[in-house]
Amino acid sequence: MSKQRLNIPFSILDLATVVQGSTPEHSFRNSLKLAQQAEQNGYHRYWLAEHHNMVSIASSATAVLIGFIAGGTQHIRVGSGGIMLPNHSPLVIAEQFGTLASLYPGRIDLGLGRAPGTDQLTAMVLRRSTNLGAEDFAQQLAELKTYFSAENSNGKVRAIPGEGIEVPMWILGSSTDSAHLAAYLGMPYAFAAHFAPQQMQSAFNIYRQQFQPSKALQQPYTMACTNVIMADTDEEAQYIATSAYQAFLGIVRNKRELLPPPVKNMNALWNDYEALQIKERLSCSFIGSAATVQPALQRFIASTGVNELMAAAHIFDINAKLHSYKLFADVMSEGVMRDK
User: Fold this and answer.
1) Of 1, 271, 278, 338, which is least surrounded by CB within 10 A?
2) Residues 300-338: pLDDT tens digits?
3) What CA–CA distance (Å, rounded) separates 158 from 16?
4) Residue 1 pLDDT > 70, yes or no?
5) Beta strand pairing call for 336-337 and 2-3
6) Using an 8 Å Cβ cutoff, are 37 and 74 in contact?
7) Is 71 left (phi over 0), alpha (psi -120 to 50) or beta?
């Protein structure tokens, strides 16, 4: 046996999940606790995702929550994974993230997505218009970049704070569409393989093949977000993962509820077709003990060529969640490789 680092940065995607018997307030406190542990355990970033009209996800006011997490930590990067730009005025996002970057210099990331992060009715309420859609994403992104630029100091509309502040921006995707834009603009690219893994490799191939260097980025940079649920044994990890299975079962059935506790047998809850659907959605998942997850992660990193790995985890019990992320950090920094 020989020890070898998996040797890429590792990060966390948090949805401020609300579990049964709890409240958003508890979720926020647990998120801070997780972020503080992550900082101690060598995580590179802690991102929060914008979702709306979902009772189990409390990260709707994403910029506010980013400020809370950044204020309770010292050096870990904190950002959005992502802000759904079509839901917002680019000026407002420039002001919000310019404010965050002024409060926490060198620590704020701005990941940007083009999906609504919610249902169509809620998206219309957010946007107050049916005319703005994902196809306008590139134009909105250009406007946002203008507000951040020092050259806009003579503009009639300016982002204060925001103007002249370097806030690293990412393109997020769950299909191949955004890969073309990220490549054309020379921006780092993160893929949501934790719920839409099917087109991940195609998207990465497009991005790398079409990448054009920019002032911000000279070489392609990819990050994959995957599900990682770990415990001391494979059996325990599979057991606590049933909360995630139930959450996705609610999505399939269009019945959103607070994250439920784990169960011993999923077969009593789903049928064969639902089980197949959910397992396809969660096919980019690493569930088990360190001995099981480490070689699987090694194969994944080698096959995809990702520059960074981000972990998401729908886990009911906060102590089990903290332990899972601690095990993941241990694997990423001290992974044990079996000699072939």
Assistant:
1) 1
2) 999 999 999 999 999 999 999 999 999 999 999 975 333
3) 32
4) no
5) antiparallel
6) no
7) alpha
* 23-62 pLDDT tens trace: 999 999 999 999 999 999 999 999 999 988 889 999 999 9
Break the chain into its structural domains and give their ranges.
2-337
CB contact set of 317 (below 8 Å; sequence gap of 6+): 240, 261
Tokens of 149: 């630029």
Which residue in 18, 58, 13, 5 sits closest to 34, CA to CA?
A: 13
- Of the candidates 14, 56, 64, the one whose C-alpha atom is nearest the C-alpha of residue 37 is 14
pTM beyond 0.85: yes
The candidate with the shortest Cα–Cα distance to 252, out of 240, 231, 266, is: 266
Output the DSSP codes for 110-136. EEEE-S-SS-HHHHHHHHT-SS--GGG
Q: How far is it, in rounded angstroms, from Cα 119 to Cα 256?
A: 12
129 Cβ partners below 8 Å, 6+ apart? none
User: What does the block give as tokens for 252?
Assistant: 């399939």
Is-contact 242 266, C-beta < 8 A? yes
- Out of 58-62, 70-74, 132-136, 310-314, least confident range: 132-136
Residue 80: name the closest of 90, 93, 99 by CA.
93
Token reading at 61: 């006011």
Instruction: From residue 141, give the alpha-carbon distance in Å to each of 85, 154, 184.
Output: 8, 20, 13
Nearest to 264 by CA among 288, 245, 284: 245
Q: Tokens in use for 103? A: 């409060």
Residue type, 11: S
Burial 191-210 (b: 16+ CB within 10 A, else e): bbbbebbebbbebbebbbee
For the domain covering 2-337, report its CATH number.
3.20.20.30
Using the Cα atoms of residue 125, residue 131, residue 137 and residue 139 in order, give the sign of their dihedral: negative
Q: Is the dihedral of CA 262, 268, 274, 275 positive or negative?
A: positive
**Which residue's entry shows tokens 């859609």?**
133
